[in-house]
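job 3f2a | input accepted
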Amino acid sequence: MLECRLVSKSFQGYKVLENCQFSLQKGEIVGLMGPSGTGKTCLARILAGLETADQGQVLLDGQVYHRRENGSKIHLVFQDAFHALNPLMTVEEILQEVLVDKSFSQDMLIGILKKVGLAPNFLQKRAREMSGGQLQRICIARAILSKAQVIIFDESLSGLDPSIQRQLLALLFELKEERHLSYLFISHDFNLCQAICDRVLTLFGGKIIEEIRDFQIPISVSHPVTQTLIQKIGYPNYSNCRLKKAVMATMEENYEKHI
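job 3f2a | predicted structure (259 res):
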């Protein structure tokens, strides 16, 4: 579905990305982790069509992806929701911005709010009146309304309260199953990646250096950077991934509420 083919990017002579190559299949969640300053956000912006690569291509369904020509089929959800949204705009205005077809109904907007776990009265609230977790839900709602096929989350859950992280991870998984979405989940936190991803890539020095497909303990990795990222969450003592279990439990609770 999404292919990143040998993408390279330099700024002022400094190579930020070098021959990055991977694919993302329909309905798949792939994690991309790495220390700060390794090019994760730069790669995300290139994939979403917000930056151009010096070399290489981004393909969607076998065709070279151009944001202006193809629309926002690849949608990027930024880390800082407070600065990603206009604080003076109401939620209704924020959601309307991404609608290609302006002949929308309030019922449709209310329906999408409910889908991301927000009450209808949020339509009239301004972004500045909302918490970080609520704003990220609005960003997710925007991505859904844009009819994106691929959603990239660039550290979007970092810094949020663990209970909010758990709720949003459960929400993302449910939406992925319901709408057959594909996610690229960028984080420096292996714990978050392990909780939702089918596989995880490590980016370091502008290159993809490793891929994790098997999350069974002991997790087999070879590169010291990947080992360090895993050890930060208490590996190998964190063998049962408490966050993943909590996400599954939250999904079960949500399912039971709708029975």
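job 3f2a | DSSP finds ten helices and ten strands in the chain.
job 3f2a | closed
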